[in-house]
Amino acid sequence: MIGVPRDTDVELDIRLEAVMEGVLVTGTAQAPLRGECARCLEEIVSETEVSFQELFFYSAEDAAEDDSLLDGELLDLEPAFRDAVVLTLPLSPVCSEDCSGLCSECGIRLADTEPDHGHEVVDARWAKLQGLVPEHNNDQES
C-alpha cells in the first residue's frame, strides 16, 4: 500500500569504519514514500528517514550464512536500507487520522459528501412485506 518508488533518489549519510572482521556501516537514509490511503484510496506522498547499521565481513569464513560480505571493495547497502524502511512503514497508511473512508453502499469518498449522506437499506428477508402496508397510513390511533 505504501513504499519507496522504484528508481528514486535516496539521500544517504553514512559512516564507514574498519573493524577486525570487516567494515561497519552506520548511517541514515531519507527517501520519498508513495502509496494510497487504506480507508479512502487517495494518493499519499510523504518522506521517511531511517537509521541502519550493518557489518560487512571481509571473508565468508568469518561470516554466518545471513551476514553481508564485501565484494572486493564494494558493498551493497540496498538490503540493509530495505529492511530498515520496511520496519518503519505503517501496515495501514492513512491520508489523515480523521479520514472517514468510503461509503460502504455507493463507494463515494465520505470526506466529499454531505454530512447527511446515507442509503435506505432494507433487509432482504423483509423486503416482500413492504408492499403489504401502505406507506402513509393516517388511520392509526396513537
Topology:
Blueprint: E1 2-3, E2 11-18, E3 22-36, E4 43-57, E5 68-69, H1 78-88
Parallel strand pairs: 4-5
Antiparallel strand pairs: 1-3, 2-3, 3-4
Low-confidence stretches: none
Task: Please trace the helix and strand order, writing H or E for each element.
Answer: EEEEEH
Biggest sheet, open or closed, and with what strands and sense?
Answer: 5 strands, mixed
Radius of gyration: 28 Å
Query: Helical amount among residues, as a percent range?
Result: under 10%
The coarse silhouette is elongated
Structural notes for this entry:
- With 142 residues, the protein is mainly beta.
- 8% of the residues lie in helices and 30% in strands.
- It has one helix spanning 78-88, and strands at 2-3, 11-18, 22-36, 43-57, 68-69.
- A hairpin with a 6-residue loop joins strand 3 (22-36) and strand 4 (43-57).
- The model has no long low-confidence stretch (mean pLDDT 85).
Brief write-up:
8% of the residues lie in helices and 30% in strands. By secondary structure, the chain is mostly beta strands. Strands 1, 2, 3, 4 and 5 form a 5-stranded mixed sheet that branches.
Task: Name the descriptors.
1 helix, 30% strand, mainly beta, 142 residues, elongated
